[in-house]
Amino acid sequence: MSEETLSNLSTETRSFEPPAELAAAANVKADAYAAADADRLAFWAEQAGRLDWAEPFTQVLDWSNAPFAKWFVGGKLNIAHNCVDRHVEAGRGDQVALHFVGEPGDTRDITYAQLKDEVSRAANALEELGIEPGDRVAIYLPMIPEAVIAMLACARVGATHTVVFGGFSADALASRIADCNAKLVITADGGYRRGAPSALKPAVDEALVKIDNDNTAIVENVLVVRRTGQDVAWNGDIDVWWHEVVDESSEIHEAKAFDAEHPLFVMYSSGTTGKPKGILHTTGGYLVGTAYTHHAVFDLKPETDVYWCTADVGWITGHSYIVYGPLANGVTQVLYEGTPDSPHKGRWWEIIEKYKVTLFYTAPTAIRTFMKWGRSIPDGFDLSSLRLLGSVGEPINPEAYMWYRDVIGGDRCPIVDTWWQTETGMMMISPLPGVTAGKPGSAMTALPGVGADVVDEAGVPVPNGSGGYLVLTEPWPSMLRTLMGDDERFVDTYWSRFKEQGYYFAGDGAKKDEDGAIWLLGRVDDVMNISGHRLSTTEIESALVSHPRVAEAAVVGAADETTGQAIVAYVILREGALAEATQGEELVAELRNHVAKEIGAIAKPRSIMLVPELPKTRSGKIMRRLLKDVAENRVVGDTTTLADSNVMDLIAAGAKTST
Ligand code: 6R9
Questions:
Q1: Does the ipTM exceed 0.85?
Q2: Do 536 and 509 touch, CB atoms closer than 8 A?
Q3: Which of 198, 278, 476, 546 is the most buried (most CB within 10 A)?
Q4: 531-657 falls under which CATH superfamily?
């Protein structure tokens, strides 16, 4: 990555000190870094003390067969016991674990004592259905309490779950069921989405037909939660109702302890090409890593905080920071079923006001959507309960950061911009809210106990002020253990690029600023080469979003005869912006000049298209690959992982008329 490019990005000089009161009472203070540096394994052994171990471990890390790690060797524990039972045993059974909010407005408060009963019943039901330790269970549910209960019940009986996001198609579901050989599928009749019931069970039926035809898997039962009450086709040989088997089961269930390296779950990554990668996480290290980071980064005070993470349990963020980390810490949290604009665009703020949410964790894409809708909507609600805000999923543009800080956080809440991946299992690079002065757009530094650096092609750490590839230099407890059934692909994908150094290759470009803080620049495949200059898509997107009329932007490098690649930008305007501009063309010219002014003439987009929406995966990541197809006048590729498949038709139609 050229110096030129990188020095351009960080013209950002603002920084925000932690609020004094929060800093004084913070769970984790500055000395944590030094303590972890002095003896990293002792540090993680100490963090393992947050959990109840049925049998203590004899070794913190066995790295003798690197990159295949074993953490907390010899230790045994039960995850459901740690996430539920022990809080009840500690006298906190009456504390609410989940404030469930259904999209149609139904609500359910579930205490830890009730959660224990539900998880135990579900665990008994799974065993009655023949599920044994090591069996795989696919979970395809809406964001309802049963999703959390099903995951914990699997963990309780030692079954390995794979949660498939409810928005995925029958085909995607079939390939995941087949890849991990699931014995049971847990689903619902449907869920609520944008004010209407949306069926789920038909997709399972379709997936099973496909699998039967291919003769690839062994699904014995489908366990169906009744959520919407809509009609479902029923196969009496395999289908069973949740309320018939779970509700009828005993609430007494003995949780057996499993080995620290017992497989906990497989999460298929939203890989855009090829076979999905089944990322495998195990028991002890995963829970230690997620519990510690949730405690440290959110400064969680379990007795008084109300936490809300808006992710879906179908994604890693939902696994690590709705289910496992938070419940291990005995949190009270909100679980919301629906979309942010149903039945109105203030729904999230209404929920924060009602439950007095103190810790809020969401994604930049959501923040930019709210920016587009305008501040008058959140301004209509009392958000004064909030004390800390989190961001995850992609780089947060300084503009979105400032809006989040000002409009949602009332200029008083620190923002933790947390960099991590499905593979890392836990947050890796993030500010500590009581310690770090946060800079808008930077994830700052590796958390205590974590080793991260930015290196050049040869694997040599770059000096401050330069950029390169983000690597993780030390093993960490919640690291992926392998790709399901494909050790070779695991080694190739993550450990071969910097084999000599033994670094984990994250696939992200990054730079270190003059203070050594890390700025993420997007996936390395999102780095463009314009006339021999390297420019990151993020950098140009940030410049566009800093224009007052722009709500959201996506940038791709399209093949160009003269410059190698040329910059093509897709821009969503803020509400009303087009009406204010005399003409679209004038505004486009203004935006091109704006980018030139912010970054330099080299970064001026060749073309800018004003679009109503951007193509996003269901986890909110912009699918630049598809935009590249449009920019290069190709037939648009596979759109099956898009949240809304109509978006590309709209964009392609616009592109034809504007060129
Ligand atoms: C948790 C999650 C991982 C990729 C990662 C990076 C991007 C996530 C980020 C971020 C900049 C942040 N990413 N958090 N980039 N700043 N705070 O999103 O996992 O779905 O596996 O995606 O997301 O590119 O490599 P996953």
A1: yes
A2: yes
A3: 476
A4: ANL, C-terminal domain (3.30.300.30)
